[in-house]
Design brief:
- This protein is α+β, with helices and mostly antiparallel strands and 147 residues long.
- 60% of the residues lie in helices and 12% in strands.
- The chain has six helices and six strands; from the N terminus they run H-E-E-H-H-H-H-H-E-E-E-E.
- The strands form three sheets. The chain has a two-stranded antiparallel ribbon with strand order 1-2. Strands 3-6 form a two-stranded antiparallel ribbon. Strands 4-5 form a two-stranded antiparallel sheet.
- Helix 1 runs antiparallel to helix 3, helix 1 packs antiparallel against helix 6 and helix 4 packs antiparallel against helix 5.
- The longest helix is centred in the middle third of the chain and has 20 residues.
- The radius of gyration is 17 Å and the shape is elongated.
- The two termini are 23 Å apart.
- The relative contact order is 0.20.
């Protein structure tokens, strides 16, 4: 897989951050936050399904961005543990509400992407800044970098 441009990495970063917020950060109560993951954990089977799908998405986006394998392995271990814990009746969903592993995993992936951009380990060429507007993103017209 070739190196990605800054704009591609930023787009991946935005998507990963969005799924982390949706999963574990919609409602904030002091030091605690609750998201779709915590709510769905109380529905047998549905919480595990959502957790596994969101975790797979975060890891897949990390792979696309070229995040180091140890970071992705740590994300996978966090999310596997969360999914396994939520299978325990009553205590599992309660633990899933408290363990915001999707948010932790997104922080790891985002930090790795930021380090990659800061090192300049990106493809040269078309750079397309992302303009944030609400829940979606829009790209401006591509600017071609001439060297």
């Amino acid at each position: 897989m070739g190196r990605r441009s800054v704009s591609e990495l930023e787009a991946i970063r935005v998507r990963v951050a969005r799924i982390g917020k949706l999963s574990d950060g919609i409602v904030r109560l002091g030091p605690f936050s609750l998201g779709l993951d915590g709510v769905l954990a109380w529905a047998p089977g549905l919480g595990e399904l959502y957790s596994a799908a969101a975790g797979t998405y975060i890891i897949a986006q990390g792979l696309r961005a070229g995040v180091p394998v140890p970071v992705l392995a740590a994300c996978g271990a966090l999310m596997f543990g969360r999914t396994a814990v939520s299978a325990i009746p009553f205590a599992g969903p309660l633990a899933a509400d408290l363990l915001t592993t999707h948010k932790w995993s997104t922080r790891l992936v985002i930090a790795a992407i930021d380090r990659k951009i800061a090192r300049g380990d990106v493809a040269q060429g078309v750079v397309s800044p992302i303009v944030r507007k609400g829940w979606w993103t829009r790209r401006q017209a591509p600017i071609v970098a001439m060297a």
